[in-house]
Amino acid sequence: FLQNNLFSEIRFLIGEEPKIRVSQLDTSFPEKYIKADFSELPFNPEYKEVVKFLCQYIDSGRIKIKLYKKSFLHAKCYILGAEKENAIGIIGSSNFTRNGLLGNTELNEVEYDHRIVNYVPMSDSHDPSHRSWFENLWNDENSIDWTEQFKIEILGLSKFGNLSYSPYELYIKILFEIYGDDIQIEENLRAESFFETRVDLTLFQDESTKKVLSRLRNPKIGMCLLADSVGLGKSFIAKKVIEELGYFGRQNVLVICPASIREDWENHLKDISLNAPIYSITEFALEDNFERIKQELMLRKLKSKRNNAIELLVIDESHNLKTQASKSFRHLLELLTDKEYCEQYPKVLMLSATPVNNGIKDLANQILLAKGGNDKFFSPFGIESIFNFFRQTQSEFRRLGSEDVFAELYPILNRIMVKRTKHQVKKDFPDATLNGKKIIFPEEKLENVLYELDGKAIRKTISDEIRQLELVKPDLYRHFTNELTDFDESEEDKIGLEEFFKLKKEIIRKHQTEYESVYHFIDRAIKGLKLSPYSYLTEKLLKTSDEEAQANSRKNLTGVMKVTLFKSFDSSIFTFKKRIEKYSKYLEQFERLFFEENILVKPAIITKSLARLEDEPDEDVIDLIEEEINKYHQRNSQNGNESEKAFIRINLEDYNTNNIKNFIKQDKEIIELVNKVLSSVTVDTKLLRLKTLLKSLKGNKVLVFSYFATTVDYLKQELTSEFLKSLDVADDEIAFLKSKTGRYKSGYVKRFAPVAQNQLITNGLINGEKEIKILFSTDVLSEGQNLQDSGIIINYDLHWNPVKMVQRNGRINRLGSAFEQVRIYNFRPEDQLDKFLCLMLKLQEKIKVIGASVGLDSSVLGENITPKQFGLIENIYSDDPEKQRQAMESLERENDLAFDEVFENDLRIFMRKASDEEKERIYTLNLEKWCEINRLSKKEHLLVYNIAQGEFRYIREINNKVAEEKNHLKALSLIRNFDKERQVVKLSDAEISESKELSKKFFDAEKAYQLAMDFEDLTNFQG
C-alpha cells in the first residue's frame, strides 16, 4: 500500500488479548511476542528489505504505532481510505496476519458507506462510527506512542535490522545466560522476608544452599564442590543440604571426613535428628576397615529397602582425596560404582576451601571421584576428557607461567562449584547478621618473631668438625664439600665450599656466613643419609615387577622423609634430635635383622604405617611402624597364631650387601657428626622468644600451632608451672593437643572456645572444668574447627605449605568472630630465611625428579610446594607489611578459585539496579545479532556462539586468521563493556558473512579432526 502510494500513512493501535484478570496484563506485550515471531523467520534478503523499508517510512512519518494500555483490547477494526471519501470499515475476527487476512475461516462485516465509517457523533447519545471509535482510543491518555520503540527494539535490533545492541546490553545478556540462575536465586532470597529453616544460616549461606541443591538435583550434573573461603561456614551449608535431602527427603546419606572432625559431624547430624553413617577418610585406606564399611552399608540398604545404600555422599575436606593412586580414593570409587550398593550413582557434595593444593590435577581427581571415574562427564560441553583437559591446562601454566590459563577451567567450575569469597561477603552483605549479631570479618595483622639459631658456638663447631673430616674420613668430607650433583649445587658453589674448608682466605671471606651456617650443614647431612631401612629394595639384584614398583615408591618415600627431617629441624632442635635418635636405633635394628637374622619387616606393615600418617601427620613414621609391629603380634597372639611373625625371611645373596653396608656406615657417621655439632647448642633461643611473646600477650586467649607432635610435647615440658604463674595461667588452663591425644580434642575445643561452640559457662566452668586460655596443637585442629573466641595465633614453625596457613588462620578469622583484628605471629629464623627456603626447594625438586611417576598413599607425604608458594612464603615472612598483606590476599584468592568474581558482580549490580522493563529487554535480547564493540580493532572480530543454555564458545578472527578463544574469562574480558550507546552496524553484509563463514569452517575442521581421532569414517562428512 505504502510503496504504491495508495495511502499517505498507516496508523496501528495495538491492544492485548483478554486474560482472566486485569492484573494479568503483560507489561512486555507486544514487544516480547513480536520479537519471538521475528526470531522464527529464516534469514533472507526479502525480510531484510522489508525491515529497511519499514524503518524508512517510520522516519518519514507515514507509519505510526500506539499501544493501548488501559485494559484489554481484543476487537479488530480496519479503516481504509480518506476521512472524507472512499473510506471502508471492517469489523470482525480477522487478525492482522497473513492467515488472518487470507487463509483462515473468519467472520467480518464490511461497511462501504464512507459516511457511516467517518461519522462524527455530536453527543454521547450518538453511536460511534468506525473512525470516531478509533480516534477516541488513539487520543486516549492510556494510548502511548510506540513508533520509535518499534523501529528500534523490534526492527532495528532484529536479525534483519542494522542497529547494534549496546556493548553493555550484549555483555549483560551473556552474563545472564551464564550466571543468571545463581544470581536469580540470590535475588529471590533477598526478596523473601522470612526463610524458615531448622539450621540457622545467614542470608548468603541460604543462597549457597539453594545453589548447591540446584546442582545436586540437576540430572546432568549431580555433584557440587562447595568451595567457600575458610571461615564462611561450609559445614553448616552442608548440614542444611543434608537436612533437606536426608531428613525431609528420606534419602540415604553418608558422610566422609578427616578423623579429626568426625565428632563435629556426629554433632551436626544429631542437631537435625538424622541417623547416618560417618567414616573417616583413612578408614577407606585399610582393607579390613573397608570390608567392614561395605558390610555396614549393605545392611543399611537392606533395612531401608531402597535401591541405593548411598543417595547423598558428603565429603568434607575433599582435598584429602586428591590422589587417584591412594587406597582411600580407589576403595571409595569402587564402592560408589558397585551396582550392588548403588544402582544409581549418588549425588556427591564435596567441601573444601582449598581444593587445589599441589596442582590443578587435584581438582580433576576430586571431580572424577564425584562422577564415578567418568572421564567423559563433560563431553556434552565440548570437553572429551576431564583429566586430559586439566593436565593440558597445568602444562600450559608450566610452559607460559601465566595464571590466565586457569581461566580455561571456567566451563567446568561454573557448573559444579558454589563458592563465595570473604571479599564478596564483605562487599555484598555489609549488614549481614548471624544469630542476631552483625558479622565481622577481622583484618589480619601478621607479625614476625625472629630468633637466632646460627650462633658463634655452633658455627665454630661446624667449621672444626668439617676440617677434621678431611683427615680422618675423606669420603664423608667430600660429601660435605663437593660431592653433590649439579642438580643440587651449582659448580661455583661446590668449588667454593671445598676451597673454604681448605682455608683459602679469599674464599673464606666470601662464603663464611653461608658455609658455616647450621642450615647449610643440616641440609648436607640430610642429603647424605641413605635411609637403607626404607630403600634396601633398590639394592636387590633381581626384582619382580611388584618389587620394582615398591622400590620406586620407597625412593620417593626416602626423599619425603628427608624433607620431613628438614622441617623438623626448623620446628625445634629437640624434635630433630629425637627423630635422628629414633632413626639411629631403627638403623641398628635393621642392620641386625638384615645381616644376622636375615629377616625384614613385612611391607604390608610399612604400608599400613604410612596410611596412618594421613590421620597422624604429626607423628614419626618409625613410631608408627613399631606400633603396628606390636599390634600385629598382639592380634596373632589373641588369634592363637603366635608363630605368625611381623617379618619376612630374605636371602642375602639376592642383594648387593656391600652397598647396603656402606650406606649404613655412612648414615652412622653422619648421625655421629650431627650429634656432635648440635651438642654445642645449649640455649634454645626460639623457646625464649616464645616465652617473651606469651608474656606480652598476657590476659589474651592464644592458639599456638606446631607441625610436629614432638615439638608440642617439648613445649609442654618446658612451659613449667612456675612460668605459667607469670602469665596468670593455671596448669589446668593450658592444653596440648596432637593426634595421639585426639580423644581430648572435643573437650579442649569446647573449653577454649565456649562461645563459638555454644557451651554453657557456669561459674566460670565449662562442663565442670576451667576455660582454657592457651591451647597448643598440631594441625589436627587446622581443619573444620570454630575457635573464634581467640583473636591470636602463633605459628611456631615455618609454613612450608601456605595452604595450611590459610586453614590455620581460618580457625579464628571466621563467621562469629568478635574481633576487629586478629594477630598472626610467625616464627622465623633471623637472617638465614632465604637460604633456608632455597635449600628446601632444591631438596624438594630432587624428590620430584626421583619419584615423578610414582604416587604415595598419603596426602601428607605427597605434599608439594610450588616455587610460587615459596615466593609467597618469603613475602608472608617479609618485614614489609604491604608485602605481607598482598601475599595473604593472593593466597586467599588463589584458594578461593575466584576467577570470575568480577563478572558475577557486574551481573549482580545490573539485577539490583535495573527496572523490570530493562530486565525484560535483556531476557528477550536477540542472540542472533551482529554487534559492534569499539574496543575491538577493525581487523579483529570475536564471534560468540550460544551452543546451549549457559554454554558459549568464542571464535576470534584477526586478519582472516581464525582460532578458538578457549580462555572463557579472557573472552568475557574482551566483551566486558559499559558503553550503553547503540550504533548502526558499519560492516557490510558481505563482510559479516565472510567472518561467519571463516568461523564455520573452523568448526567444521574441528569436527572433522575429532571424528578422525575417534576413527570415524569421514567419507560422508558434510560439516
Number of helices: 39
The secondary structure category is: alpha/beta
| Number of strand segments | 30
Strand content: 5-15%
Whole-number mean pLDDT? 80
| CATH level 4 superfamily of the domain at 195-438 | Tandem AAA-ATPase domain
Q: How far is the first residue's CA from the last residue's CA?
A: 44 Å
* CATH architecture heading of the domain at 195-438: 3-Layer(aba) Sandwich
State the CATH topology of the domain at 195-438: Rossmann fold
Main-sheet strand order equals: 10-9-11-12-8-13
Write down the overall geometry.
elongated
Low-confidence stretches: 18-25, 483-497, 846-865, 1016-1023
Q: Radius of gyration over alpha carbons?
A: 37 Å
Q: Quick one: CATH class of the domain at 195-438?
A: Alpha Beta
Helix amount: 40-55%
Query: Describe the biggest sheet?
Result: 6 strands, parallel
Walk me through what this model shows:
With 1023 residues, the chain is an alpha/beta fold. It is 48% helix and 12% strand. Strands 10-9-11-12-8-13 form a 6-stranded parallel β-sheet, sandwiched between helices. β22 and β23 form a beta hairpin. The protein is elongated, with a radius of gyration of 37 Å. The relative contact order is 0.10. The C terminus is likely disordered.
Task: Give a short synopsis of this structure.
The protein is of the alpha/beta class and 1023 residues long.
